[in-house]
Amino acid sequence: MSQTDKKSAAKDRITALSEQINYHNHLYYQEDRTEISDFEFDQLLEELIALETEFPEFLKEDSPSQRVGGTITKDFETVEHRYKMLSLGNTYSEEELKAFDERVAKGLGHRNYSYFCELKFDGVAISLVYENGKLVRAVTRGDGYKGDNVTANIKTIRNIPLTVIGEDIPDSFEVRGEIFLPRKEFDRINQERAQNEEALLANPRNAASGTVKMQDSSIVAKRRLNCYFYQLLGEDLQVSQHDEAIHLLEKWGFNVSPTYQKCQDVTEVLQYIELWREKRFELPLETDGVVLKINSYDQREELGFTAKIPRWAIAYKYQAESAETELLSITYQVGRTGAITPVAQLKPVSLAGTTVKRASLHNANEILRLDLHEGDFVFVEKGGEIIPKITGVSLDKRRSDTKPISYITECPECGTSLIRNEGEAKHYCPNAQTCPPQALGRIEHFTHKRAMDIDTMGTERIRALIEQHLIVSPADIYELPEKKEQLLGLEVNSDQYTKSSEGYLFVSLKKALYAITKTIPLAQIDNFLAENEGVEQRELLEKFENYVRKAKKNIAYNVPVIWRLKDALQNSSFDHIEDYLPVPVVLAVIFKKPAEDFRTICRKENTVHDIMLKYEGNVDGAQTEQINRIKGNTFQEGVVSNMVKGIEESKKQPFEKVLFALGIRNIGENTAQLLAKHFKSIEKLKAASPEELLEINGIGETLVTSLQAFFQDEENNRTIERLKNHGLRFEIEEKEQKLESRSLEGMKILASGKLNHFKRDEIIEVVQSHGGTYVKSVSKSLDFIIEGEDMGPSKKEKAEKLGVKLISEQEFMDLIS
Ligand SMILES: NC(=O)c1ccc[n+]([C@@H]2O[C@H](COP(=O)([O-])OP(=O)(O)OC[C@H]3O[C@@H](n4cnc5c(N)ncnc54)[C@H](O)[C@@H]3O)[C@@H](O)[C@H]2O)c1
Ligand SMILES: [Zn+2]
């Protein structure tokens, strides 16, 4: 290549890299998500810096190599930093770390310096400004020069000192640290989100960053953020070394992670790095490396800064562990809202101490982005995420004849054509009424403690009833008592099943091996599988054969059975899912027939019980026994009568609970109560005009639309009719309407903060039983607010602004007594 060609190629590459880096910076800092790993990101940046160094004429002032990646948002007040908040240089290798040390030695002209090592906490940088001992401002890093004023949010973090007391506190100083979401808290939030079928938070860092930038401080307060501090800045600080500053921070009550260590030279630094490589996973938060800083402030000054980073510090980043493995197939999960999530089924591979067999793929876009083909070899990585993710495809290993993965078009649970709304990443199954996971969501809501309260129908049981076509609509529940006979013997536990993308039923390897073999107890099979966790299926079956021979477990019968299983697997074209076997293959072994014979009856069925109902061939006694061993637990007499009792009991639930149980969109518990009290019967509610509805405080347009849509659907009206015939209450009983007093008549009231004498729900009832109306948000129309402990500052401010009176809990009690 000629010099000019090389130059123009470099120029193009610089432009392309800058664009890419800006794009990923935007995702990372503005949208709190990532599409590539930090390592990949840092490689792009490194390549850019190398090119810009070789061709300085192409270095632009606004190049991402010259700027801190974050920006300021328009949602918060912008504040200028007194001291710039810089980024850190980073490296992933020991050589580069040593090279850094050489640069330091050269810069200072001697080796008489020490390092201070800290872990690199993976959160969000924050600057706290204190004046006269009081926290006056908390600002994000932003673009390094200016950041967002997020003081109200930061004040909700419990261990951040709002006031610093002690001797010699400087009039003004600044403290910097990292806000983070503790791993435990992150897990808790995600568990809650999973239960509510909300999108999961991807990793603790993004979650912390998103939380700090929330507009509502009361939500921030609910997420227990925490903070570690690692820097003190100011004019007349009586310290000349970083370790002294850290000790001062500790003394003043700032949360400092006790993981720091002073190191005399780079060898000690490397030991520190090794010490924490694994141990850091025991810490309560995510860390992604080590930061080493020159301890002496004078020496720091001598070394100075580049445009973006200090020359006296560097971050050593631990590389996320990555592994390569084969993509076996893709399965699709259907959520309770109908959302489809693809899951990559992988050949087991060991990664960061665990065996990985599955990776999340999020949605169809992710599959396109990765350009996944059938049978690809993929790279999996376990970063801060809970579920491993696929970071790329090994193109060298791709066979020439493979097809790109084609996304499913039908729901694997019910066969309905999937839809995808414009602008949304996920596909949905629109069959809300009868698609099993969606029906499950509706019925779980119906039986919930706060609705019909049928606690004898837990999720597993409901799922079993739906999957075996005994219920789809809530009204079907009340017909179960007449079907006692059918209930006995139904399969309950369906965790043992899964489905392939084509809708074929798969059963766990454990159950399958148990069913096809003789005289090997389930517990022993379980043990065998646990000991061979991570062994790929084909090899696993070899091992199982050896196990049978060695343990002398009916070799004459069992070994040929294992051969038949291997043959049947080899000759069938079903997807491959680790830990599971296709049911047609298992049936083929049991009935000594080709798996093809079972193909059709095993599609779109949820249990072996159902499949056998469709099977027309002969079944002898031994085979029946084998089939029964595949099945999960079954409904027994005690369970059935218990369930029936719970169902009968639920008929006594008051109208407001029934109304809530119907699951009308946007109608929560309180609204149901409000509507029930106001209209007193479902007929009157149904007949109400939009105007009538809107007159009720707390009822808005959205609710009116939801109600109309609900009653327009004939299916819903049929359900109501059926429920009525079963004796459920669709009107208020006289005694429910009795009032305790009229002392709050006509008043609109809200309680905020924690009350000492009433629970959340109780206060609503108390207000209503004295003739008042409980209102959920602060507005001008309120008569007063009962101020509890820790009432949110933003709510209080709003109330004051609107001139709404605040009264204490005691004053309220006086009012009603
Ligand atoms: N994957 C992506 O798409 C993507 C995109 C942009 C950035 N990134 C990653 O994010 C990082 C962005 O770099 P950056 O500019 O935010 O700098 P940085 O995160 O690499 O380093 C500076 C920051 O480290 C933090 N830090 C944590 N512990 C510290 C300690 N003990 N002492 C001092 N500082 C500490 C501070 O918040 C400081 O602002 C890079 O590592 C990059 O890989 C990834
Ligand atoms: Zn469906």
UniProtKB/TrEMBL annotation:
Residues forming the BRCT domain are: 739-817
Q: What is its EC number?
A: 6.5.1.2
Keyword Magnesium applies = yes
Q: In its UniProt record, which GO terms are filed under biological process?
A: DNA repair; DNA replication
Residues that hold Zn(2+) according to the record: 411, 414, 435
The Swiss-Prot or TrEMBL record lists the needed cofactor(s) as: Mg(2+); Mn(2+)
GO CC terms in record: cytosol
Positions binding NAD(+) in this chain are 38-42, 87-88, 118, 141, 178, 293, 317
Q: Catalytic center at which residues? A: 120 (n6-amp-lysine intermediate)
Q: Known InterPro entries for this protein?
A: BRCT_dom (IPR001357), BRCT_dom_sf (IPR036420), DisA/LigA_HHH (IPR041663), DNA_ligase (IPR001679), DNA_ligase_AS (IPR018239), DNA_ligase_CS (IPR033136), DNAligase_adenylation (IPR013839), DNAligase_N (IPR013840)
Pfam families from the UniProt entry: BRCT, DNA_ligase_aden, DNA_ligase_ZBD, HHH_2, Nlig-Ia, OB_DNA_ligase
Catalytic function, reaction form? NAD(+) + (deoxyribonucleotide)n-3'-hydroxyl + 5'-phospho-(deoxyribonucleotide)m = (deoxyribonucleotide)n+m + AMP + beta-nicotinamide D-nucleotide
Q: Which UniProt keywords apply?
A: DNA damage, DNA repair, DNA replication, Ligase, Magnesium, Manganese, Metal-binding, NAD, Zinc
Q: What does this protein do?
A: DNA ligase that catalyzes the formation of phosphodiester linkages between 5'-phosphoryl and 3'-hydroxyl groups in double-stranded DNA using NAD as a coenzyme and as the energy source for the reaction. It is essential for DNA replication and repair of damaged DNA.
To which protein family does this belong?
Belongs to the NAD-dependent DNA ligase family. LigA subfamily.
What is the protein's given name? DNA ligase
Identify the species of origin.
Litoribacter ruber
